[in-house]
Specification:
mainly alpha, MFS, membrane
């Protein structure tokens, strides 16, 4: 046996005494000891539930009028384009705010991001409700209150949309991250699901359109109360995983520079943004696409609801599977390919009449594969860009989606051909003209197909966060065995 030196030895930043034990005063020793004592807290589920409620509420407010666009245009005595702008304002506002939200989340932390988003969302929903008060609308159009309220809620959207990956990283263990991210991320599509289901039911006639605004304000107020009363910690007292200790190890602007030099991340950001932009336009225009072919609002509402419901089911399966296998890239590529095929199928079937069942099936499968990959893509963005903060890596991807969504929504409206209402159309009660969306749906399918090809062929990456966690665990093992850790 080799002699043991009486002098302390250094391993990296950790000092080892003559007896072979770590010096308890060593900075690296303190870090490594923390790594051996991971812990999760029950409060993480409350935090997750509040984030889900805010996210769902914000999505309901965004898509409020899209499932009943024709009735909304008739009630407010405006064009369909004006109604579409109530959804479009989210994209316009959230693009510049997205950069601020990324900085805010990575610099000030989860607590303040969630609290600020809950208050903005609640105030925006209350201002929207002023459009229903008669004496407030004597001298001005109720649309003013709607646009101001929508804009405030649009400011809240990036803050709460960027939270899921950060929440999963800071509060959940390695084997729960993808599932937690899936639950938090899919709460936003779930809000779209509820709006697609409830808006046509509540606003079955023109005079009930304002009631939709009031009903959707209730969850926004409840979410703000729960967030303010119950969220008090930025992070748990003990980290749940090795990477949680360094979840924002890179300064914000340094992290942005690293992201823009990361080829794999750039490809993922562009392709994810294209898919997100297409889905944003699809959700906003679904009722207008189908009504031209004679499908009533409740059919488009059912199709939109199935689209989201199946997406939640797909995301659940993907989250559980990826938590066990860590096959992020394989899942994203396969699901993106099927999404492109199903968008092509929708472009064809949406031009046929009396095919409600087939449309419902295609929309369900489209949601399953399209939304199913959504939270996994967010986790993959973190994996390929670590140690850049989660707020920055997911935030930049979302901004890409918002920019492309804005471009697509404007472009699709320009491509839609105006027609005088045909006899079998189910669009509008007082609309002078409606639009044929056959060309925009084909363009949707084409863009999605190009994005799928680029992702499948060119995207390759290593899982940097998982590798860092594995190295940290090996360091602990090596030091406990008296071996020098790998730097």
């Amino acid at each position: 046996m080799a002699e043991v030196s009486e002098e302390p030895q250094m391993y990296g930043n950790a000092r080892v005494t003559a007896s072979g034990e770590l010096d308890p005063e060593s900075e690296r020793c303190r870090t490594l000891r923390k790594l051996q004592h991971y812990k999760v807290y029950k409060k993480r589920w409350y935090f997750l539930a509040v984030v889900c409620l805010i996210n769902a509420s914000n999505a309901m407010i965004w898509i409020t009028f899209a499932p009943v666009a024709d009735l909304s245009a008739s009630y407010f005595n405006c064009s369909l384009d004006t109604v579409n702008y109530l959804s479009l304002v989210y994209l316009i506002v959230s693009i510049p705010i997205g950069f601020v939200a990324s900085w805010f989340l990575d610099t000030l932390g989860l607590k303040y991001a969630v609290l600020l988003s809950s208050w903005l969302n609640m105030l925006g929903s209350i201002i929207r409700c002023l459009s229903m008060v008669p004496f407030m609308n004597n001298k001005q159009s109720p649309l003013i209150y709607l646009f101001v309220g929508q804009s405030l809620c649009a400011v809240a959207q990036p803050l709460i949309l960027f939270v899921p990956t950060k929440l999963a990283a800071v509060w959940f263990s390695e084997h729960q991250r993808a599932t937690a991210n899936m639950i938090a991320s899919m709460s936003n599509p779930f809000g779209i699901f509820l709006a697609n289901l409830l808006s046509p039911i509540i606003a079955s006639e023109v005079q009930y359109v304002p009631l939709v605004v009031g009903v959707y304000g209730i969850p926004a107020v409840l979410a703000c109360i729960l967030a303010t009363a119950g969220i008090s910690d930025k992070a748990p007292p003990t980290p749940p995983s090795a990477s949680a200790i360094h979840s924002t190890s890179e300064p914000f602007f340094t992290g942005l520079k690293q992201l823009l030099k990361n080829k794999a991340y750039i490809i993922l950001m562009i392709c994810f943004g294209a898919g997100m932009g297409i889905f944003t336009a699809f959700s906003s225009f679904l009722e207008q696409i189908l009504c031209f072919r004679g499908y009533p609002n409740y059919i488009s509402g059912i199709c939109g609801a199935l689209f989201i419901f199946a997406g939640g089911f797909g995301a659940l399966i993907c989250g559980l599977y990826v938590d066990r296998t860590k096959k992020f890239t394989e899942v994203v590529k396969i699901f993106f390919a099927f999404t492109a095929l199903l968008f092509t199928a929708f472009a064809v079937i949406s031009n046929l009449r009396n095919q409600a069942v087939l449309l419902a099936i295609v929309c369900s499968l489209l949601g399953f594969f399209g939304f199913g990959q959504y939270p996994i893509t967010m986790e993959l963005a973190v994996e390929c860009s670590y140690p850049v903060g989660e707020g920055s890596s997911t935030g930049l991807a979302f901004i890409s989606g918002q920019v492309q969504g804005l471009i697509f929504m404007v472009m699709f409206q320009m491509l839609a051909k105006p027609y005088a209402a045909p006899p079998l159309s189910a669009c509008g009660v007082n609309q002078i003209e409606i639009y044929d969306w056959s060309i925009p749906t084909l363009v949707m399918a084409g863009v999605c197909s190009i994005g799928a090809c680029i992702l499948i062929i060119f995207f390759h990456t290593v899982y940097k966060r998982l590798a860092a966690e594995a190295n940290s665990e090996q360091e602990v093992i090596n030091i406990n065995d008296g071996n020098e850790p790998h730097n």
